[in-house]
Amino acid sequence: MAAVTQRFNSLKPTSLGWLALLLVLVVAVHWVALDWLRAQVTGGSTATLMPQPLFMRVIQPVATAIPKRSPHRKATAPRVAAATSTAFVQTELATDERPEPEAPGPGSVASDPPLASASHPKPEAAELPETHADEAANSWPADTRLSYDLKGYYRGDFYGSGQVQWQHIDGHYQVHVDLRVAVFFTATLISQGELTDEGLQPRVYEERHSRGVRHLTLDSANVTFDDGSTTAKPLGLQDTASQFVELARRFSTGRQPLVVGSQVPLWLARPQQMNVWTYDVVALETLQIPEFGAVPAFYLRPRPIANPRGVINAEIWFAPSMQYLPVRIRINLGNDNYADLLVNRIDQGAPSASASSVRN
Hints:
By secondary structure, the protein is mostly beta strands. It has helices spanning 2-9, 13-41, 242-253; strands at residues 57-58, 80-83, 88-91, 144-153, 157-169, 172-181, 185-195, 200-209, 212-218, 222-224, 230-232, 238-239, 263-269, 274-289, 293-302, 313-319, 325-334, 337-348. It has two domains: 2-44; 57-356, no CATH class. The longest helix is centred in the first third of the chain and has 29 residues, at 13-41. It starts with a helix and ends in a 12-residue tail after the last strand.
C-alpha cells in the first residue's frame, strides 16, 4: 500500500492530465456503446426515414393581418366520429347556434363527447370542411425545420435543444420531433403518413428514447396500439407529432378559425391510448424572441382530459406572422416540472411540385 501511495505522489501534473484524458475517453466509449445498443433496440422500428431535405432559406416574421372572425361562424372543421369497443363516440364542432364558450374553471376536466347509439354499424361520414376560394390545392407548406432553445425544470434546472422537422415527398409526409438535454436525455417522435386534401393521415407513429421504442399503426379504419390492441379509427385522428403541422395548416388556410375565445377539438393518439383533446384559444400574446424580436402568437392551452394515462400535456403558441408555425411549445410534466421550447431559427425549402400531389 505504501508503494502505491509513493507511486501516486510521484506522478507529475502532466501524468494526472493523461489520467483525466483517459477517464474522458473511457466515458466516451461507454456512451458510444450505449448509443449503439439504443440503435439496436430501435432496429425493429416500423418507420422508414425519408432522406434529409434541402433547406434553401431562413424564415423571418412578416407583417400579417390578425384574423378577427367570430368563433360563431359556420363550422369549418369536419364532424368527428369514432368507435370504441362498446359504443360510438361523437363530437361536433362549433355551430352558429352554440353560445360563447366559457373558460374552464380551475381543475375542470374536458368531458368526452356524448355517447351515440351503439346500434350504429359504423362511424358516420365526415362533413367536409368549408372550401375557401383563395386556398390553393397545394396548400401544404414547403419542407420546414424549426430549431428551439430548450429550458426546463425537473429536480433542478436543465437546458437543451429541440427540433420539429416537416417534409413531404410524392404525397407522403414525415414529422420528426427531437428533444435533447445535454448528453443525459434524448427523445424522438416520428409521424409518417399521407397527405390528403382534408388533412394529414398518419399511418405510423413512434416514440423513441433510451428505454426503447413505442409505436402505433393506423390504416383507413383501425388503430393498433403498442400492446397489440385495436380500436376503430376516429375521423381526423392525429398523433403527438403530426398535430403541430396539421393545426398550422388548418389555421393558415382558414379551415379552423383561430380567434381568442374559440375552441380547437382534436383527436390525438399515442402508443397507449387516444383521446379528444380540446385546446382553448386563451389569448393573443406577444412573445419576446431574441432572434426575431416581438412576435404575436395565439396561445392554445389544453383542457385536462378524463382518465389520462400520465400527466404530460403541451401548451402551444402559433404565430400568424411566421406562417402560423408553433414558435413556442411548453411541455408540462406534472408537479411543476416542465420543458419550454422557444424557436431560434426556421429553415425552409423551396416549394415543390409534390405539394400538390395529395391523395384524394
